[in-house]
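Run: sequence + magnesium ion -> complex structure.
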Amino acid sequence: MNNFTPKETYTKISNISIDYLKNDLNIKGLIFDFDGTLRINKEISEETLDFLKKAKELGFKISVLSNNPHVSNTILKSLNITTTQKFACKPLRKPFLSMAKRMKLNPERIAVIGNNRLFDIWGANRAGMHSIYIQNLDNFFFKKKIKNNLKNDGIKPIE
Ligand SMILES: [Mg+2]
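>> structure
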């Protein structure tokens, strides 16, 4: 197991067992990546919204750590997530550790949820946090669909 290996892998956020995180791992805070994790193909699913709601009800502290400088404040506000950091320079350890400080939690009490093995998983592991990889099949199928469409049109895609 290397530093790029997540502790858990799921195809979507709603498959994560929030009870396992709370009761077995004593996790108290969640740091979410934004693009491709909370928001996939420009939308946030009902299932993801339900997960956030349940996590809040169970008393989890929730934050967003994104390398994207343009994450919409309106969306973050609608999600009721106030602890956020844009343009975060993941996978450096510093943004993860500063976020832990802002959440007033030790790194080992935090799970990082993200769709990028380098930025999210490697960063989380090195910061001593529990790493959860969202293997984004939606994006995968989307790319595959484009590839197939090109093929149907007789265009050979560039690998
Ligand atoms: Mg992402």
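>> summary
Residues 8-152 form a domain with the Rossmann fold fold (CATH 3.40.50.1000). The chain has one domain: 8-152.
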